């Protein structure tokens, strides 16, 4: 069975919502739409207080090469533009809209007919993804059109589609593959045309046999698209790990997948690409998993961007009394949130409600030099060293130890018998080194 060779762990899968068909969540009375929902520069608001907006209308324009447009997820009136807390606990500029009805732009094709006739040229596809605000929905939220702009002298041998969903609990990608497989594959074909490549490989962990079977049957009629079962091992869905598993190629330190002739996109992104190109629909809603061992109704919801997460929790039959933490994302890479008023954004894949018994960290003890963190690191790093040097503020040593190669998967913290918050210190070091590198490059 295909997989990556270096490191990895096997946390319990807990795919409690795997059979939960996607439900459309009711539109809230008010949405909070951050203008920075993507990697790169935040978008610039182009609406003002009191403006009337429709579903799909551009409300914030990208403000740099690495940036993305933001569109209204609802129809109504702009209440105000203010700073609102995000999932990381920072106040971010956001457009707050009071909802009135559900009036969509006429330019959006709302029919459920599947359109496989791709009329746009390669350049038109790139421009359309830019216009529609499409970003990577696997977590990184990198503007998708940028990935299609292959520099001169570079060639894409493989488009790799990430259907792994290796993070425990999350099932939004799984349900999307089961329910929107045809549209997703058309999206893959659009991406292939945009990249000028004839080969696409879809990787799916073999704990989703229904998705593997379903997409394999559908892919038989799409030229150049193949489906590949993968061994269940976290973080199989990491970009570099997926490339290694499917192609055997290894992305060099500090380089991008394009260096080895690959471009990686998530299955959710492929579906959003289909909707953007074939239906002229901007990215203003996505599928979000709401789950947890105490949740009465683990669910997958189609949610408008800007919806407060409390609305999702209520739709899953409420917050369990024993909840200790609310996590945006999965348990390995997600972030605990401050409150239930934070909005769903383009990168929100799941809301995990963890019982208090499972959410408490064990008391940190002295490192016993067992090297478990080294053996599970999928990037071949030394987490104990990165953590220690970052804690001491020796950021020159942190950089030399290749902290920027860390994918923040959390395997080191998960396996540490001394309960040392290795990833917390490594993230600190990575943030500081990133600042140092940027300042150095500006000189």
What are its keywords?
443 residues; alpha/beta; Rossmann fold; six-stranded mixed β-sheet; four-stranded antiparallel β-sheet; 14 helices; 29% helix; globular
Shape: globular
The CATH C-level class name of the domain at 122-279: Alpha Beta
Strand neighbour order, sheet with most strands: 1-14-13-17-15-16
Q: Would you tell me the overall average pLDDT?
A: 96
Structural class from helices and strands? Answer: alpha/beta
Distance between the termini: 48 Å
How many helices? 14
**Computed CA radius of gyration, to the nearest angstrom:** 21 Å
In percent, how much strand structure appears in the residues? 15-25%
CATH superfamily assignment of the domain at 122-279? NADH-ubiquinone oxidoreductase 51kDa subunit
Total count of strands: 17
Biggest pleated sheet: 6 strands, mixed
CATH topology of the domain at 122-279: Rossmann fold
Q: Helix coverage percent of residues?
A: 25-40%
> pLDDT under 50 segments (min length 5)?
none
Just name the CATH architecture of the domain at 122-279: 3-Layer(aba) Sandwich
